[in-house]
Write a structure and sequence with these properties.
This protein has five helices and six strands, in the order E-E-H-H-E-E-E-H-E-H-H. It is α+β, with helices and mostly antiparallel strands. A six-stranded mixed beta sheet has the order 1-2-3-4-5-6, with helices on both faces. The longest helix is centred in the first third of the chain and has 18 residues, at 22-39.
């Protein structure tokens, strides 16, 4: 492990930005798979070490690895977002996972505080994410920090065969 440790207020907890190394890419995939299992949809977590390498090499995301006593215990994955209507940019928290044994110890709050600071340091104005409606523990965690859900908004996604079918309904070239 390189020594790019980001200290926290807890003496045994530190953060580190993932690098495009084979070890970090494998670790990211490991934690994304655990996140998928936790959410009950592991089949949607199709990230590979190769795609992780491409994302990191092309600066398409920020991935924070969380360590306790030099052992990885989780991660947070951010992708960039732009809200054209509001004229602001930000990060979308794509995935946040801590091993079960390290939850309810204040570590999640420390990570979220770092993500907020990173958001501002990168010149962004927003940090947002989606929380499954069944995740009561997550709701309590985020509400305690002052985060509120956006009322009456639902997330929609178009991918796979429906995305391809809709794209084929546009008759001409796009360029």
């Amino acid at each position: 492990m390189d020594d790019n440790r980001i200290p926290t207020k807890h003496p045994d907890l530190f953060l580190r930005m993932a690098s495009p190394s084979p070890e970090d890419c494998a670790l990211v995939v490991h934690y994304i798979q655990l996140l998928g299992k936790h959410q009950g949809n592991p089949e949607t977590m199709t990230l590979t070490p190769e795609t992780t390498l491409g994302l990191l090499n092309n600066n398409l995301c920020e991935i924070v690895i969380v360590y306790y006593q030099n052992t990885p215990i989780g991660l947070a994955c951010l992708s960039r977002i732009t809200n054209v209507c509001a004229g602001i940019t930000g990060f979308y928290l794509e995935g946040f996972y801590l091993d079960e044994a390290y939850r309810r110890k204040g570590f999640g709050r420390i990570v979220m505080a770092f993500l907020a600071k990173l958001t501002i340091a990168k010149g962004h104005q927003r940090l947002q994410w989606i929380l499954w409606d069944w995740n009561r523990q997550g709701k309590t965690f985020y509400h305690q920090m002052g985060y509120d859900p956006i009322p009456s908004l639902e997330t929609y996604r178009l991918e796979g065969a429906p995305l391809l079918a809709l794209s084929k309904s546009f008759p001409g070239p796009i360029y």
